[in-house]
Design goal:
By secondary structure, this protein is α/β, with parallel strands linked by helices. It has 13 helices and 14 strands. α5 packs across α6 and α10 runs antiparallel to α11. The two termini are 23 Å apart.
Length: 384
């Protein structure tokens, strides 16, 4: 699961610039050198893999995972020092999004079903570039760089906790919600589920931009979110959370990290006819494609979101779906905010590489207080 075989330009190391190279794979931290001569390349590495979708017992440790190779000139190979876990990793262990991922891997449907196994899961990482493709210039990355030009003030453990939640929060609040550093001052924002990875990052970004932030969380997470600058906290364990929320002044934007029945009441907390938006990160998009296939799933998704948007627009508020989206320029800005001390990584718990199954179970239980990170290699990280 961690020594991740990534095929998409979507992590910290390749998001910094829109033209930056794609991280092909993330390799085990114990592999110290990777030579450019193909004859001297290592062929295997340790990894956590799955051979089928299922519960946590499908995780299997192997010392014989295929070592990554550069197939395209814009790719780099990275020695992973730390990897962050996200709830979607647990979901994908069970097959969530399998149809969409299969379409990306094999758009012509040439390969047989199950050809993705053994599969290495994962989202986030921080590490050091070991090898660069021919089109990767030193202006972007070079061997020995801590990817991706990670904030200087962060250790690899901290840096691994940032990219996925940062890109998700930016996509939801900026791309979908229309907020930015110039228009956020004094806006009232409600975050449903404020103590997890996306929630804790969103709080800090919004406060850095001058917003008034209210969050829902359990009582034992209040100290954490208060420490991040939250203005008002509502304890969802004290009773139906919508009751105290309805007593508050209405909001300009609601970010929903919870899902469930929140749609039935959360849109009523928005200021009507003022451009206020409800943005939910809990959407049926991948479930639809898994259940119905790519074409029918996307059609069903389009019909669902369009009908809900029209329904709520008639009441004077905007209904939107938010989701992770790669954005190099966003991570440029986020990196600057981190180095300026406006945003910090929130790491709840750290595990060793041998404890990957325990780390997955920790994430699976929910009720996160920031991020769970697996330490893979200490390397020569002077900041740790």
């Amino acid at each position: 699961m961690l020594h991740l075989r990534q095929l998409a330009c979507s992590w910290w190391s390749c998001l910094l610039h829109s033209r930056a190279p794609c991280v092909k794979t993330l390799v085990h931290g114990d592999q110290r050198r990777l030579f450019n001569t193909s004859n001297s390349r290592m062929t295997i590495m340790p990894a956590w893999v799955i051979d089928r979708y299922g519960s946590n017992d499908v995780l299997r440790f192997t010392k014989n995972a295929s070592f990554p190779i550069i197939n395209y000139p814009n790719e780099v190979v990275v020695q992973v020092h730390a990897a962050g876990l996200n709830p979607i990793d647990v979901s994908m262990r069970g097959g969530y999004g399998a149809a969409t991922m299969a379409m990306k891997r094999d758009p012509l449907n040439i390969k047989q079903s199950g050809s993705e196994f053994p599969l290495i899961l994962g989202r986030d990482m921080s590490g050091v570039i070991m090898e660069c493709g021919l089109d990767v210039t030193p202006a972007y990355f070079k061997e020995g760089d801590e990817v991706s030009k990670k904030p200087k003030c962060l250790s690899h453990i901290e840096a691994a906790a940032v990219p996925y939640v940062a890109a998700t929060a930016w996509s939801a609040l900026v791309n979908t919600g229309g907020l930015n550093k110039d228009n956020c001052a004094k806006k009232r924002i409600l975050i449903l589920g404020g103590s997890g990875g996306v929630g804790t990052f969103s709080i800090q970004m919004l406060k850095a931009w001058g917003a008034h932030v209210t969050v829902t969380c359990s009582q034992n997470a209040e100290r954490l979110v208060r420490g991040l600058g939250v203005d008002h906290v509502v304890d969802y364990t004290a009773g139906p959370v919508e009751v105290p929320l309805r007593a508050l002044e209405k909001f300009d934007l609601v970010l929903d990290n919870v899902g469930g029945d929140t749609e039935s009441w959360a849109l009523g907390l928005l200021k009507p006819w003022c451009g206020a938006k409800y943005v939910t990160l809990v959407t049926p998009f991948l479930c639809n494609t898994d259940r119905l296939g790519i074409a029918d799933g996307m059609l069903q998704t389009g019909v669902t979101v369009a009908s809900k948007a029209l329904k709520h627009l008639s009441k004077g508020v905007h209904y939107r779906w938010g989701m992770f989206a790669p954005n190099g320029l966003a991570l440029d800005d986020i990196s600057e905010m981190v180095d300026a001390g406006k945003i910090r990584a929130v790491v709840e718990e750290e595990f060793t590489f041998s404890q990957v199954p325990q780390a997955m179970l920790k994430v699976e239980k929910g009720h996160a207080r920031g991020k769970t990170v697996v330490k893979i290699s200490s390397g020569e990280d002077s900041s740790e």
